[in-house]
Task: inverse folding
């Protein structure tokens, strides 16, 4: 059976790949959406934090024997702590100023991180093995699905759901949202707003690092892996609506599928299609598909 | 503003022309190394090429004791043709640079060779790949030194097709280099009795090749030709293993460098065929030079870096021989003199600018076969210069009279 000129086998295979990539985009854009949605900071260092997360996993494995499963927790912790330092020493002074200053600072930090890692490791990248438990694959009939890719979907979507739940459905999340909308009132109620802000930034960075560890066995761990993806992630968040957590998740998945289908029918455009959609969405609904803006 | 620049350039060149009568202008030769210092090709060329150039200059000054000074400048073109063009212009017009070298990335090579012709300076291309440099875009101030898409495609595709890999599918980087490599390899496959079942073009640079590899897998081809380079090739190989495509189907890396193998490891690349213009472990001479290079750069040289040393040394020797840095005279001297060093034996520079030399068909060792670090290849065959490169009879270069 043929769908639009290609076999149904190939079609479903590409669709599944699109879903896998989509869940990866979702977890990547989640951290960015949180930081922007709650703190109003455009965190251009997100790609660098993703890259550092992957490198921490690789360094951990190569020099300290820290295996993949432990790295899934250790790496976000390390990057989260570094983010706390950044927020306390640098970002905090920029909240009163225009968005652009935060963007410039984080962009500069990203360039520094990339430069340092390029100097230390070169650009060819390092190999990170798929952990033994997740090696091999399953023949689904229409395609061979590597177990690791299935794991990416499970891990990414679980973390996305948990994060969304915490922010939108728990009292901690409610406090967080309130603290960013009316920090003065919330502070007056005795809640330590600066600590919450720091914790939120660290959480966003930790999510980026988590995505980095997920990606390490699939893509070479190299210093430019973040800068290659960051632009796409920004497009996803803009389309989804920069304030919306659910929007980032759903859009990430959706765009993964659309990109996957483009790769089937017109592969040369697959890098561009997300930006075309971004332009269309911005023209029709500037706040993004799920965005809420005054 | 523009008129003023033209007037300045004209008067400057007249002055220079008056001075450069059988002597090196300003008593100095200035070599520009224009390379990718921090991007996707910085490992195969980049800072290593700068190191190689420094070594060439130091060796030349120590061994030949010339009457003129030699200086080097370097810059990062970031793989962008416009940045490279601006830098080359600045170098040639303002900074008295005599020769632009390295020039990895095809768009850079093509742009700078045009500017070199415009300014009557020399372009020594080591890193760029496309055969267009010595065909449609050829000129008489350019030497294409190390390799080109024809040479690497010819070596690898011929060996693999003859060895039984008759059905091919290409995964191609969607820009000039990828297209050129795919076309050259397709011609070789067909000429040796194989067939090409199809191809898919991926955006350059890419990071996830899973859906393109899936297409390759469903095509039923025995051989998946990777018409890309650098990080794209590395990720393609890695993800092909992940999706169970290898070892059932085989991959042919049409342009691979020793740094790619080093980064992937032998487990992922074992038994792959590739064609290179240089291998550090070929003989005593290559080993000696490479060990010196390693001491400075901490990695073994790629063919681009070795070729960079070779081309700069050849240029400097030519300048010394005729005691002049006049472009036409130096080009004539370089073409007259065969290239005999650790990089090439009996290499010659043809009228289309192509430096022809032996190429090597290599196969990546299995992990158990490798005894020392960087001990990665078995040399399967030496492809003699006359066979390795596109013959002049097929040339599309306007300079070649048929």
Result:
């Amino acid at each position: 059976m043929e769908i639009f000129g290609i076999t149904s086998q190939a079609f479903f295979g590409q669709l599944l790949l699109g879903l896998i990539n989509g869940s990866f985009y979702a977890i990547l854009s989640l951290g960015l959406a949180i930081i922007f949605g709650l703190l109003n900071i455009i965190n251009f260092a997100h790609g660098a934090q993703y890259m550092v997360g992957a490198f921490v996993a690789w360094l951990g494995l190569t020099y300290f024997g820290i295996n993949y499963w432990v790295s899934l927790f250790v790496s976000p912790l390390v990057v989260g702590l570094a983010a706390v330092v950044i927020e306390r020493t640098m970002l905090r002074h920029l909240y009163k100023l225009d968005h652009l200053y935060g963007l410039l600072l984080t962009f500069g930090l990203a360039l520094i991180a990339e430069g340092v890692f390029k100097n230390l490791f070169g650009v060819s990248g390092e190999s990170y093995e798929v952990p033994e438990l997740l090696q091999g694959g399953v023949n689904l009939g229409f395609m061979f699905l590597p177990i690791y890719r299935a794991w990416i979907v499970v891990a990414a979507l679980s973390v996305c759901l948990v994060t969304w739940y915490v922010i939108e459905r728990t009292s901690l999340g409610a406090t967080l949202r309130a603290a960013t909308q009316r920090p003065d009132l919330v502070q007056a109620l005795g809640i330590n707003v600066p600590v919450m802000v720091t914790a939120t930034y660290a959480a966003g960075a930790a999510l980026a690092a988590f995505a980095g560890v997920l990606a390490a066995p699939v893509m070479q761990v190299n210093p430019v892996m973040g800068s290659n993806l960051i632009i796409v992630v920004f497009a996803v968040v803009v389309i989804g609506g920069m304030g919306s957590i659910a929007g980032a998740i759903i859009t990430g998945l959706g765009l993964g599928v659309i990109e996957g289908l483009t790769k089937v029918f017109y592969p040369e455009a697959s890098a561009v299609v997300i930006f075309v959609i971004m332009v269309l969405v911005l023209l029709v609904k500037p706040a993004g598909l799920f965005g809420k803006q005054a | 503003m523009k008129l003023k620049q033209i007037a300045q350039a004209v008067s400057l060149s007249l002055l220079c022309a008056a001075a450069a009568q059988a002597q090196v202008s300003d008593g100095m030769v200035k070599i520009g190394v224009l390379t990718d210092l921090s991007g996707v090709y910085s490992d195969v060329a980049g800072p290593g090429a700068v190191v190689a150039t420094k070594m060439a200059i130091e060796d030349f000054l120590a061994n030949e004791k010339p009457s003129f000074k030699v200086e080097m400048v370097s810059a990062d073109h970031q793989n962008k043709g416009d940045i490279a063009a601006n830098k080359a212009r600045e170098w040639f017009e303002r900074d008295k640079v005599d020769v632009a070298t390295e020039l990895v990335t095809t768009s850079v090579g093509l742009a700078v060779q045009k500017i070199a012709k415009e300014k009557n300076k020399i372009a020594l291309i080591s890193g760029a790949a496309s055969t267009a440099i010595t065909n449609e875009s050829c000129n008489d101030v350019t030497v294409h030194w190390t390799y080109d898409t024809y040479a690497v495609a010819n070596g690898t595709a011929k060996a693999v097709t003859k060895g039984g890999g008759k059905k091919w599918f290409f995964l191609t980087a969607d820009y000039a280099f990828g297209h050129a490599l795919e076309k050259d390899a397709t011609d070789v496959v067909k000429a040796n009795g194989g067939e090409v079942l199809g191809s898919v073009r991926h955006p350059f640079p890419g990071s996830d090749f899973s859906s393109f590899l899936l297409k390759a897998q469903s095509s039923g081809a025995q051989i998946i030709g990777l018409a890309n380079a650098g990080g794209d090739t590395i990720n393609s190989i890695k993800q092909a293993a992940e999706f169970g495509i290898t070892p059932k189907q085989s991959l042919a890396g049409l342009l691979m460098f020793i740094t790619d193998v080093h980064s992937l490891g032998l487990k992922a690349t074992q038994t792959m065929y590739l064609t290179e213009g240089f291998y550090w472990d070929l003989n005593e001479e290559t080993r000696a030079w490479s060990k010196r290079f390693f001491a400075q750069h901490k990695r073994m040289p790629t063919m681009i870096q070795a070729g960079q040393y070779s081309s700069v040394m050849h240029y400097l020797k030519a300048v010394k021989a005729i005691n002049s840095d006049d472009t036409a005279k130096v080009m004539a001297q370089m073409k007259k003199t065969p290239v005999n060093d650790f990089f090439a034996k009996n290499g010659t520079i043809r009228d289309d600018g192509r430096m022809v030399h032996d190429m090597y068909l290599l196969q990546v060792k299995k992990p158990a076969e490798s005894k020392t670090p960087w001990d990665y290849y078995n040399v399967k065959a030496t492809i003699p210069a006359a066979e390795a490169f596109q013959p002049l009879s097929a040339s599309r270069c306007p300079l070649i009279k048929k």
User: Anything to note?
Assistant: The first strand of chain A starts at residue 2 and ends at 3.
